[in-house]
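2024-03-11 09:14:02 DEBUG pipeline.ingest accepted 1 chain
2024-03-11 09:14:02 DEBUG pipeline.ingest length=401
2024-03-11 09:14:03 DEBUG pipeline.predict start
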Amino acid sequence: MGTQETTRWPVVGVSILAGVVAAAHIGKVPTVIPALRGELGLGLVAAGWVVSMFNTLGSACGIVQGMIGDTLGHRRSALVGLLMLAVGGGVGAMSSDQVLLLVGRCIEGVGFISVVVSCPGLILAVTAPRDLRLTFGLLGVYMPTGVAVALALAPLIESALGWRGLWLVLAAVSLGMAVLLAWITRGLPRNAAAPGAGTARGIADDLLLTLRQPGLWWLAAAFTAYTIQWSSLLVWLPSVLMETRHTDAVSAAGLTALIAAANAPGGVLGAWLLHRRIPRGQLVIVANAAMGVCCIGIFSSALSDQMRFALCLLFSGLGGILPSAVLGGTAVHASGPRRIGAANGMVIQGSNLGQLIGPLTAAGLVSLFGNWDSVRTFLLGAAMLGAVAGLLVEQSERRLS
């Protein structure tokens, strides 16, 4: 694991920032869904696919992409991922129909997963053993930070340059991030591959060794349950506000960005609690219980809009503990330091699966039942699944210790 005597915090910070830029490609979509639907003639479910196509390949191939990072080098894999985010944004900006837009989103999704499964390996390489829980816990803030920033800025950029301009701006930011990451990590040695890595036998062995770690399965399940809840709420909240409360796009984006941003302090809290040796499984259980309870109130018509908004902030804030707890566990449950990318890929694959399932299912339920309240039972079920996964994580780590 970490072999440095002192942690190289600039590399840690830029690696997390690369994740923030990658996550911004998720947050750029929700507030421009009405514009996309109007220009390209998308239905609600088709608009859901614009969101979820981003996660399609990641939900199926995350562990494979993690293994590629282990073999080719985490630095190289992260840089390629940032370049793919830029290419995907350019393709989407040129689209005249939903097909090319979805192709661009798919390319962006491959770039996203390449970045987020590789950056933990970079962090591991520059972190002192005493700081591992803290640095891996802090990694959990990349998603809410990137999504919140994109949500806040997207309507402003879209109003000035159109949604195509928004796509191109983020493509340019991804290119700039690639340059910065290449510079800050220029002195890092390439992660050494295990003997036989890259061969068919080596790939099969790495895959089997990773899949045989039960703790990774429970961490992935917990991440799936979390992202089902968080992405379902965040993706569709601007549409709900504009359709049911007649909120303008900028205000809807601002409110949603505040809710997304509330997740980041939760991530920092989760990192601190891990650093204080609070059991990971307990953090997963508490986060899911809090999100489930908040969800009941969020969809309750008996409460005022102000109270429901406060519950949304609490839902996101306390939920933010979970990504830090889960991502901090990949190094613990990996079959070895040379397979950290595969372990991260497996867990991030769970996250991508949740982001694929959540918004699409929520859109399907609304289309079927004609109201947003129908989503509540679905999200409560996800919270219960996450709590069970937390129990299994705790049992697994007791056996490890």
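2024-03-11 09:14:41 DEBUG pipeline.report The two ends are 16 Å apart (CA to CA).
2024-03-11 09:14:41 DEBUG pipeline.predict end
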